[in-house]
Design brief:
By secondary structure, the chain is of the alpha/beta class. Helices cover 51% and strands 10% of the residues. The protein has 3 domains: 10-176, Rossmann fold; 182-271; 275-327, no CATH class. It comes from Penicillium alfredii.
């Protein structure tokens, strides 16, 4: 396996780090949860079996970002860290294939069956002396996870799931991830915005916004980007939000505060998109968010007789959209 030499001294060992996502640059808090994960997965023990820990809670509370953060801070402690998108058997198979390529178990252009690839990776995990961590993100489907669980004695597994029953059916321990309290949420929002955290007025406005958004990290992050991009004074935001909330509520078929909060956040963000960006957004919504190839959009637009998609085939517009995607948040 390229670039992986477990027999090397600790100081010279290079961690195999297969994480297809970038950690939020302004991740905030959650130190207590990170410490609990570390204690459960890496503390010294005489038990010779895989350790597992589950993060469970409703969507938007930051489970995936906590997992990404833990992966980042654990690089110096482990020999290999792998990420598995566990939404379905298809995404699990795709993730195992990427891991197999990273480990050099299959060639990049191989057409080996997903089950065979998964078996290769699981055999490596069960036989290696290297300390590894597998992260199963969005492991809500127990039937999809049935054949994806490895054996071994030197590894650890971290799971994120919205379903507490599924989480504890898989992991030996875990904790519920809840929204930020008012103080933590306001600090997180001010951190996202790069505003003075010691300012009393900033704290009061940020706390009011946090309370309105229910402390949901996902909503706070999206709203932080919206406020920053539109250069909206913090004190003016809630009025704008409440107007959009009333509009969303009038169209909504549910009265759940959680759904209404996120729906309002998305409504505000999407309402500011250009026609081309809205078309792109709608097109992307039909695809797996973790495995969208740029060529699929650019080359595919050349084959479709639809004026609304012509911008995807235009190199200049395409580059601009890439820049928006990269730097827009």
């Amino acid at each position: 396996m390229a670039n992986f030499h477990p027999q090397q001294p600790e100081a010279s060992r290079k961690t195999v780090y297969h994480i297809p996502f970038t950690e939020c640059s302004r991740f905030w808090g959650r130190e207590d949860i990170i410490a609990r994960i570390d204690e459960a997965l890496l503390a010294e023990s005489s038990t010779k079996s895989i350790r597992s820990f589950a993060l469970y809670g409703m969507g938007g509370v930051g489970k995936t970002q906590i997992a990404l953060r833990y992966a980042s801070v654990s690089r110096e402690k482990l020999d290999a860290i792998f990420w598995i998108s566990a939404e379905s058997s298809v995404t699990i198979g795709q993730s195992f294939r990427e891991i197999a390529k990273t480990l050099g178990l299959i060639k990049p252009d191989t057409e080996t069956d997903d089950n065979a690839v998964m078996l290769e990776v699981k055999q490596w995990l069960s036989s290696t002396k290297s300390r590894w961590l597998l992260i199963y993100d969005n492991a809500d489907d127990l039937s999809a996870m049935k054949y994806a669980w490895p054996a071994g004695s030197v590894g650890s597994i971290l799971i994120t799931s919205r379903d507490s029953t599924a989480a504890f059916s898989l992991a030996s321990s875990g904790c519920q991830v809840t929204p930020f309290d008012t103080d933590s949420g306001s600090a997180a929002l001010l951190n996202i915005l790069g505003l003075d955290m010691d300012s009393t007025s900033n704290q009061e406005e940020a706390k009011a916004i946090t309370s309105t958004l229910g402390g949901l990290p996902l909503a706070l992050n999206q709203i932080g980007g919206f406020i920053s991009q539109r250069k909206i004074p913090l004190k003016n935001f809630l009025g704008l939000y409440n107007r959009n909330s009333a509009s969303v509520d009038a169209k909504s078929t549910t009265s759940m505060d959680y759904n209404l909060t996120l729906a309002t956040v998305w409504e505000m963000a999407l309402s500011k998109l250009s026609g081309s960006s809205k078309t792109l957004h709608m097109t992307l919504s039909f695809l797996d968010p973790d495995y969208i190839h740029e060529a699929l959009l650019h080359d595919g637009a050349l084959q479709v007789n639809d004026a609304s998609l012509e911008f995807m085939a235009d190199e200049i517009e395409y580059v601009l959209l890439q820049l928006i995607q990269t730097y827009g948040n």
